[in-house]
């Protein structure tokens, strides 16, 4: 059932004079059940790792299958299960390039998905939905040594995730954002939660001290003005050859609560990742991205991989494998 159907269902209940308190009670039950599932899975994984011992930080997958805030296609809602399938695909082994083993629970665990569609089917609006996503992330973070590695979904999910990370840690983070677009419109097409506005919400909320945007090659006048307004460090592809030395030797996070990495799969040139909603030629190579990640000096407290669209992944699941490899290498960066 789509959001439209969910809204129609809610209107029918209202038209039938169903008491609003009854609708609210039903919504609250669904939300509580959703959060309980995340909470208990995180508790189980946290208890396991604490029993094993010797783990300072472990990446924990959390899926947020949300696509309705996309300005073009909603396919990213279907991405989390496809990414998981590719992570454990038998065509490759479980080692990251730096030698960490993903089948070791001390390196990677999984707490499942926030049931976005089920919550929206109850008529829950986006304000509450964003709060539910934030609360889900906090539930993961409460279970030491778990650190959330979020599978999107469209890029609108980064706002509630970063908000949760910053609030839970008690201060702003530095953000490394790889993307073809700056996603910093004030309110794109009238939607304050648009995937094109997520970083405006993050910056105005004070959740980031530094925001570095890398791979940018589709930016408007407003995108540049917003970047200046918030003091964003925007690295456009047209100057990448000049900036490469800086970007492959980044040191972030000193004086703040840690570093957050957000990777929009369309930061890559479509030759490497055709399965995205917004095809934008002239992007980063996959090795460019890995060089940036591998050389980054930072305490990575959380990350996301977003905007993979399985409905456009026409080359035999190639982009799914690309997204999975990004997740694998982020796992190695987070876990210690």
Automatic annotation (TrEMBL):
<feature type="binding site">
    <location>
        <position position="179"/>
    </location>
    <ligand>
        <name>Mn(2+)</name>
    </ligand>
</feature>
<keyword id="KW-0056">Arginine metabolism</keyword>
<dbReference type="GO" id="GO:0004053">
    <property type="term" value="F:arginase activity"/>
</dbReference>
<comment type="pathway">
    <text>Nitrogen metabolism; urea cycle; L-ornithine and urea from L-arginine: step 1/1.</text>
</comment>
<comment type="similarity">
    <text>Belongs to the arginase family. Agmatinase subfamily.</text>
</comment>
<feature type="binding site">
    <location>
        <position position="155"/>
    </location>
    <ligand>
        <name>Mn(2+)</name>
    </ligand>
</feature>
<protein>
    <recommendedName>
        <fullName>Arginase 1, mitochondrial</fullName>
        <ecNumber>3.5.3.1</ecNumber>
    </recommendedName>
</protein>
<dbReference type="GO" id="GO:0033389">
    <property type="term" value="P:putrescine biosynthetic process from arginine, via agmatine"/>
</dbReference>
<feature type="binding site">
    <location>
        <position position="264"/>
    </location>
    <ligand>
        <name>Mn(2+)</name>
    </ligand>
</feature>
<feature type="binding site">
    <location>
        <position position="183"/>
    </location>
    <ligand>
        <name>Mn(2+)</name>
    </ligand>
</feature>
<keyword id="KW-0464">Manganese</keyword>
<keyword id="KW-0479">Metal-binding</keyword>
<comment type="function">
    <text>Catalyzes the hydrolysis of L-arginine to urea and L-ornithine. The latter can be utilized in the urea cycle or as a precursor for the synthesis of both polyamines and proline.</text>
</comment>
<dbReference type="InterPro" id="IPR023696">
    <property type="entry name" value="Ureohydrolase_dom_sf"/>
</dbReference>
<dbReference type="InterPro" id="IPR006035">
    <property type="entry name" value="Ureohydrolase"/>
</dbReference>
<dbReference type="GO" id="GO:0008783">
    <property type="term" value="F:agmatinase activity"/>
</dbReference>
<feature type="binding site">
    <location>
        <position position="266"/>
    </location>
    <ligand>
        <name>Mn(2+)</name>
    </ligand>
</feature>
<dbReference type="InterPro" id="IPR020855">
    <property type="entry name" value="Ureohydrolase_Mn_BS"/>
</dbReference>
<dbReference type="GO" id="GO:0046872">
    <property type="term" value="F:metal ion binding"/>
</dbReference>
<feature type="binding site">
    <location>
        <position position="181"/>
    </location>
    <ligand>
        <name>Mn(2+)</name>
    </ligand>
</feature>
<keyword id="KW-0378">Hydrolase</keyword>
<dbReference type="Pfam" id="PF00491">
    <property type="entry name" value="Arginase"/>
</dbReference>
